[in-house]
Amino acid sequence: MFWLVPTLFALCTFLLVYALLNSLREAEESYVSEYTADTARQFEDLFLFIPPEQILRLTHIAASIAFLMVFMMAGNLASLLGVVRGGFAGLMAGGLVYLVPRFILRIMKRRRVERFNLQLAGAMDGMSNALKAGFSIQQAFDTVVEEGENPIAQEFAMFLQQLRVGMTFEEALADMDKRMGSEDLTLMIQSIEIARQTGGNLTEVFDRISETIRERRRIEGKIKSLTAQGRIQGRVVSAMPLVLGIGLYFIDQQMMMAFFRSTAGIMVLGIVVILEILGAVFIHKIVDIDV
To answer: 24, 75, 102, 130: which could join 140 in a potential S-S bond, CB 3.0 to 4.6 Å?
Structure first.
């Protein structure tokens, strides 16, 4: 009977590990599915025709490389504590790598919306002139596609294409509004819908909205110039720990390697990263004034 207890313990351990691995596999499949669908939607919004699975594979490779590099710097295979310390630091680095694609896509989307907003006032002037010349609203959109530049030409072309395949005018406008996420475009779409329902003069509506958008751009430009110093200070302060760390590494490499290989050093590094992220978020909230 002496073998019964070790056997039961081994069986329980096996079942626990199997359940843990199974749950991790299900979580990974759910994450991959959600990540792929979200990335594909963002690529469609940006008119980028890149398979999201390819981005995921590249992210896996980059995260693995980051894990190994940080583990070699902070870990030590000679002791269990060194392995745990290196593994923790490597997981942090790999996790940050997984955030990079979303961060890049968010920046690309914001810049695309900014370019769209800059083009919208001029496009509405052109549409107003087209309506005054006797064109229909769809023909006015088509003039922007022919004469405008991306991204507004792409978005309006997609809008017209959706109309050709059977989507209603209101549904195509709502889809473009959801795809762009621009407050100026939302104002334009709401004005078009109200004018179509009430029989209003679209040329006057476009002229007024164009003037409103230009005034908002002027106020936003003034606010950006007034908050430029705060944004620059935030970037400088955020970059100081990284610059100091790199400088100290070249000045005294042995000291910095000892810092990275110590548990206290890894904890301090993690706290610094968290505080850096919180500081960047707070500074962004302070200088981001909504008009």
So the answer is: 130
